[in-house]
Amino acid sequence: MPTNTITIFDTTLRDGEQSPGASMNTEEKIQIALQLQKLGVDVIEAGFAAASPGDFEAIHRIASQVQHSRICSLARAVERDIKAAGESIAPAPLKRIHTFIATSPIHMEYKLKMSPAEVIKRATEAVTYAKTFCDDIEFSCEDAGRSDVGFMKEVLDAVIGAGATTLNIPDTVGYRLPHEMAAIIKELYGFVGERAVLSVHCHNDLGLAVANSLACLESGARQIECTINGLGERAGNAALEEIVMAIRTRQDIFAPLTTNINIKEIYPTSRLVASITGIEPQPNKAIVGKNAFAHESGIHQDGVLKHQETYEIINAKDIGLEKNSLVMGKHSGRHAFKDRLATLGYTLNDTELNEAFVLFKTLADQKKEVFDDDIRALVAEEITKIPEIFELVTLQLSDCNPGGVPNAAVTIRHEGKETTDAAIGNGTMDAVFKVIDRVCGVNGQLMDYKVDAVTQGKDALARVVVKVAFDDQKPAVMGHGLSVDTMWATAKAYIGALNSYMTIREGLRMRGLEKKGI
Ligand SMILES: CC(=O)SCCNC(=O)CCNC(=O)[C@H](O)C(C)(C)COP(=O)(O)OP(=O)(O)OC[C@H]1O[C@@H](n2cnc3c(N)ncnc32)[C@H](O)[C@@H]1OP(=O)(O)O
Ligand SMILES: CC(C)C(=O)C(=O)O
Ligand SMILES: [Mg+2]
């Protein structure tokens, strides 16, 4: 019976680096290798030593520093490559040479220009020579996915005879479907038995790399080759984090199979690789994507708040993420909104909550994501709200081309009646203030104007604060406006100041103080 512990062979530093744009320098590779060791990876393919002096140097330094993971270097079935691989891994306490040659008809005929017999001879010689550097030798039938299984048996038999200890079956061009890969491995396992460990290396050209890898476990594969974030040549390799978490999450299917991976290190490793390579996983990438543990819709958020497992099959903390997240947006509901308010330290009564929720939904329609600071600003607006004696209904602005006449039109509701008017001004803002003055029958003097963005991004909320003296009354009053549109926020702020003024004036009138000019 094969072992129950699946060997996780990480090739981020070799196949992963073959992703266009993912080249890493030696220091960066060392940093990643040390993190892979912390992650508990069994074998680290640290590079292709013969590719360049830089690659050789990086593998050599990794081999000198990593103690617990096996360090491997890739080599063609060519003496020069194998020698470089052997020398590069020499300092490692645990080492492996990985040599390969293609076995598919198309590769043998057009690329290698070798006959099948020559390929068998080359493969055997390569493994024999590699054996002079270390005991642990992996051999790969490149393009195994399109190779004849009968021919692969001949090749594998020969390399086992030469001392290969792991036999890798790569679906180099990501051509196979899961049931086909499983059938190939089943047949090869029947032939190889326990003479060597069977490994798979699946590419993602059809988006099946992980599914194909997992399908081979039941057939006897005991090593999976994979990369962090699924990096790799073209569409990439099988993603380590997906393989490991699938095995762990579906123990009902995979038990007693396990891995040695310390899953708490999955997220930190993913972040390190993304920051070094500059290649961010797509947001909806399983396990490590930005949205993998984020919930945006009200029904899901409500479910997760009541019982996390309603919408989560993995606990974010298990993979080293601080927590899942409820993203506040237009699909969020009252439960999530109330929960976020509580986190931010607000306790609103039902009426306040409902009113703040209406503001939140209006804002969410205009913004992609509503951030905590947006919510704080909304609540502040709600809490400090003064009676809307005058209410802005519409605002329309002319464009402000050089030489044009800036003008603004507004509709304002007062005591149930809507009035529309327009005014010109020295600038758009001046036109806005003038038309409000005219419609409301006041004369305001702007003493101060401030605008700032509540959060970042082009759709950030603008917070406008104005200080206005109406009808020559002192002291001036303040008004606040909040909107994704700065001019709307400006008009709201000005009308807010006017409402403040009217409220104060009404209070004074009721106390008989107005005529004293206080
Ligand atoms: C599926 C994979 O991911 S394979 C790994 C891919 N990684 C790399 O290619 C590593 C980076 N590569 C390199 O730096 C270079 O290609 C080198 C140093 C390896 C070789 O460079 P060059 O000697 O200039 O050869 P070049 O890359 O142009 O061509 C490859 C040659 O190797 C031969 N070859 C390819 N694979 C193998 C193999 N597994 N065993 C023996 N020969 C092979 C090709 O047939 C070709 O031979 P030819 O020159 O007689 O036609
Ligand atoms: C070198 C081999 C294992 C490879 O990367 C592939 O075939 O995809
Ligand atoms: Mg590959």
Strand and helix layout:
Elements: E1 5-10, H1 26-39, E2 43-47, H2 53-65, E3 70-76, H3 79-88, E4 95-102, H4 105-112, H5 116-130, E5 137-142, H6 149-162, E6 166-171, H7 178-192, E7 197-202, H8 209-215, E8 223-226, H9 240-249, H10 251-254, E9 258-259, H11 266-277, E10 294-295, H12 298-306, E11 325-326, H13 334-343, H14 350-366, H15 372-383, E12 390-397, E13 407-414, E14 417-424, H16 428-440, E15 444-453, E16 462-470, E17 477-483, H17 486-510
Parallel strand pairs: 1-2, 1-8, 1-9, 2-3, 3-4, 4-5, 5-6, 6-7, 7-8, 10-11
Antiparallel strand pairs: 12-13, 13-14, 15-16, 16-17
The structure holds acetyl coenzyme *A, 3-methyl-2-oxobutanoic acid and magnesium ion (MG).
Magnesium ion (MG) binds at residues 15, 170, 172, 201, 203, 233.
